[in-house]
User: What shape does this take?
Amino acid sequence: MRTALPMLLGLLALAPLQAQAGGADLLKSQCAACHALSKPASTSIDSLWDRKAPDLYYAGDKFNRDWLVGWLQNPTPIRPAGYPYFKNIIEGPKHDEVDQSKLKPHVHLAKADAESVADALMALKPDGVVEKGLYKGGSVNMRMGAMTFDKFRGCVACHKGADGKGGFSGAELTDAGKRLQPDYIASFIKDPQKIDPHIWMPTLAMNDHSIQLLTGYLIQLSKQEKK
Amino acid sequence: MRHHSLLFGSAFIAALALVAAEPADAAGTSIERVYGTYCVQCHGLKRNGTGINLPALSVKPRDHTDAKGMGTLPDDEIFKAIKDGGLAVNKSVLMPSWGGTLDDKQITEMVHYLRTVCKCGH
Assistant: This one.
């Protein structure tokens, strides 16, 4: 009995570590077949065509943990045409369409596994991918944000924004602020090629004002939209 | 001395190999695949402006198969539209600038490719 208490305390102290190790194991067994968990040695347009899913080696600087935990238990499509979009499109009568037969459902995890995988993903934070502190915060002019997203910069051409309206080749951004960290959003808008070389999102040479406005707009939009 | 020149020779060959290898990555990807990665999202698999994003676009993308419309555009204007975006040639902002994604060599190659798509050589 005397030895039981320290042993129990010892086991309790070990528990979070074991959970993390479990998450890392799950990452390897459940995620690594489709997602890159370490930085690829080289990148090219051709390597984009070999991808089955987005890279996750900087997931800790990209996602919000709470969103990950929820999404991993109930994954809903983030990209209307899957990933990469260009492998899932077919000619249609009026315009190209998504070949639904090519879209594969994402793996579902139980709550405990979702928690440990989210922890393991949040630990993936390589230096130099995301520009820390790029998003300054502050009040957002939503009308200007909407105008910029829809008209001045044409983000809506590829991304779904307010009311779920927009294009198909980019990630849905209606709830991007729930899914993504502000500095990641700002860094990706600023230079998507720096984060993900050869990605099909163009670099629009935006000034800091536009980067702050669009990032703030997307964060605020997520709070307004019901999903 | 002979050793030195051998060493120098090897280094020179290695350097040449590096110089030769560098553009191979960009050139290794076929221009059709470059089109199929970036341009196809709006200009479409048929190359006629009917890409998957068409329903979300307020302006229809250029029909690259239109020999008449494409035929009026000089090469340098097409190059500029791809590199700097639609606004740079007084067209829609919905055509973004690809200069941060593609290098000049790829863009030049794309201009030549578009001439084969429209069958309207300049």
The interface with chain A takes residues 25, 28-29, 33-34, 36-38, 40-42, 44-46, 50-57, 85, 92-94, 96-101 of chain B (CB under 8 Å).
